[in-house]
Amino acid sequence: MAYTKQVKAANVLNNGFSSSYTGGDAKALMTTDHPTLEAGDLANEPSTAADLSETSLESAIISIGGFVDDRNVPVAVNASKLVIPKDLAFTAQRILKSELRVGTADNDINAARSMNILPKGYAVNHYLTDTDAWFILTDMTNSGLKMFQRRPLKTSMEPDFESGNMRFKASERYSFGWSDWRAIFGSPGA
Questions:
Q1: What is the DSSP letter of 165?
Q2: Sign of the CA dihedral with 179 first, then 44, 32, and 52 last
Q3: Which of 7, 41, 102, 125 could join 33 in a cystine, given CB atoms 3.0 to 4.6 angstroms apart?
Q4: CA nearest 29: which of 8, 50, 48, 43?
Q5: Quick one: pLDDT band at residue 103, thresholds 50, 70, 90?
Q6: How many other CB atoms sit within 10 Å of the CB of residue 175?
Q7: How far apart (Å, rounded) are the C-alpha atoms in residues 152 and 169?
Q8: Helix or strand or coil: residue 154?
Q9: CB 9 within 8 A of CB 176
Q10: Long-range contacts of 163-166 (CB under 8 A, 24+ apart)
Q11: DSSP state letter for 63
Q12: CB–CB of 5/12 below 8 Å?
């Protein structure tokens, strides 16, 4: 039961770039053309897919800082946590935890670390299926990515008189989705 719930939750991100899985605006969770009333089409995906790097992370965080609402009014939303597949764990560790800039001979500070730009760090999700897709969760509260627990886990058991075996059953009801695409920024990788 726990495994299935994790897979279903990860499927929101696994299908996040697919136009077959759309939200209330008839667009995928991550896209470059979310329609709005007055702000034109807005994006929570880079215009050119990019692998996780210092440059692509900085660009994504700048984009998140520029999010506006449907009336083109800036919204106070910040990057909060990087979500990655297991394949990007070493890359994320280098980018976020190094004292100095990654992969350069310069003596520049690591801006992402010194600014604490991702206060919740990063999380490896073992249920992500794309090895180079990465996501940044924002600090939107009570909106965005959703999980509804309709009925909590309920278990029961009873003996089977005919066979002498014990019969077990478990059930629960839940659903996953999203209500506001500004809760996440993602790249499918290059």
A1: P
A2: negative
A3: 41
A4: 43
A5: confident
A6: 10
A7: 14
A8: strand
A9: yes
A10: none
A11: H
A12: no
